From TrEMBL:
InterPro entries: Aldolase_TIM, NMO
Species in which this protein is naturally found: Kitasatospora viridis
Keywords: Flavoprotein, FMN, Monooxygenase, Oxidoreductase
UniProt keyword annotation of Nucleotide-binding present: no
Pfam families: NMO (PF03060)
CDD domains in UniProt: NPD_like
Protein name: Nitronate monooxygenase
Keyword Flavoprotein: yes
Molecular function in Gene Ontology: nitronate monooxygenase activity
Length: 330
């Protein structure tokens, strides 16, 4: 039991990342039922639909789960509207994760509702700001992580600096976590747990497109690249993705529509260089879309159901924590 597990009521100190286009109700509920921190991606969901999705998860699991907001994409007003819609639906013991810093109103809304606020940051300065906003847990994202990047430091360097400045903070790391050994090593280095995204992309309950899942399972670390290409809908934020025809092209192609994504019964066009990841309702030039993936993909080699993945990580973690000297020597 680590402070992260104790604070959020988890059996395993592992959070599933709130990945838009991947982390729907089925994945969130299954990870939660397995004893880890399942997280529902709200991303750009309208408030009424967001509340409906939270109710769906709550009906599927009695264990703690979280919802994820992305304030820099939605904007402060829309983020607050999402929270006002979902907080009354979030069961006791639920938590809220924010990708990047929320504003003071959003942070206050979460605290006033009695739910722990988990804030993902990428710099020492943002870690201090998040704690001042009342964050119960910080997720420290290193550059090894897949998806949009909040800083420029590898995860171990960020962990060392934040732990030194904030010795009593509850800290999870994000980037490089795919096995129970990875999790145990992170705890041995001073973390209270971890967050994983790439690990759960291929899960049976993930809403990632089948081609996205296949690519992650077959990829190794050097198949990923940090780029700023996929900026439409989420500008000014570099991201780690799997290499594809666009990342490898010498010249930029026109930003014409290349795909269609169906969400809640409606079709939405997807332009080339969109930040949208391909989901199971996407058709078109999937190979040209952003497939967010961390360097941990080297150790993600199967597409098991989420419960089996969590069970495997737990077994590996428990075995590794019985060998503290071996962990510290790696």
């Amino acid at each position: 039991m680590t402070r992260l597990a104790a604070r959020l009521g988890l059996e395993l100190p592992l959070l599933q990342a709130g990945m838009g286009g991947v982390a729907g109700p089925a994945l969130c509920a299954e990870v939660s039922r397995a004893g880890a921190g399942g997280t529902l991606a709200l991303y750009k969901e309208p408030p009424a639909r967001a509340a409906r999705l939270v109710r769906e998860v709550a009906a599927a699991t009695s264990r703690p789960f979280g919802v994820n907001v992305v304030p820099e994409v939605t904007g402060p007003a829309a983020c607050l509207s999402q929270l006002r819609a979902v907080l009354p639906e979030l069961p006791r013991g639920g938590f809220v994760t924010s990708f990047g810093l929320p504003d003071t109103d959003a942070a206050r809304a979460v605290r006033d509702a009695g739910h722990p606020l988990v804030v993902q940051v990428g710099t020492l300065a943002d870690a201090g700001t998040a704690l001042a906003l009342g964050a119960a847990v910080l997720v420290l994202q290193g550059t090894e992580a897949g998806g949009h990047l909040l800083g420029e430091l590898p995860v171990d360097a960020l962990l060392a600096s934040v732990r030194s400045r904030h010795p009593y903070a509850v800290l999870a790391v994000a980037g490089g976590i795919a096995t129970g050994r990875d999790l145990a090593d992170a705890v041995a280095r001073g973390a209270d747990g971890a967050m994983a995204g790439t690990l759960f992309v291929p899960a049976a309950e993930s809403t990632a497109h089948p081609e996205f899942k296949r690519r992650v399972v077959e990829a190794v670390a050097d198949d990923t690249v940090i780029t700023s290409l996929f900026h439409i809908g989420w500008p000014h934020r570099p991201h780690r993705v799997l290499r594809n025809p666009l990342t490898d092209a010498a010249d930029r192609y026109p930003a014409t529509f290349i795909a269609t994504t169906r969400v809640d019964g409606r079709d939405y066009p997807v332009p080339r260089y969109s930040a949208a990841a391909p989901g199971d309702g996407t058709t078109g030039r999937i190979e040209e879309m952003a497939m967010y993936c961390g360097r941990s993909c080297t150790r993600v080699t199967t597409a098991h159901p989420a419960a089996a993945t969590v069970a495997r990580v737990r077994q590996e973690y428990e075995s590794a924590t019985e060998e503290p000297h071996r962990i510290q020597e790696r």
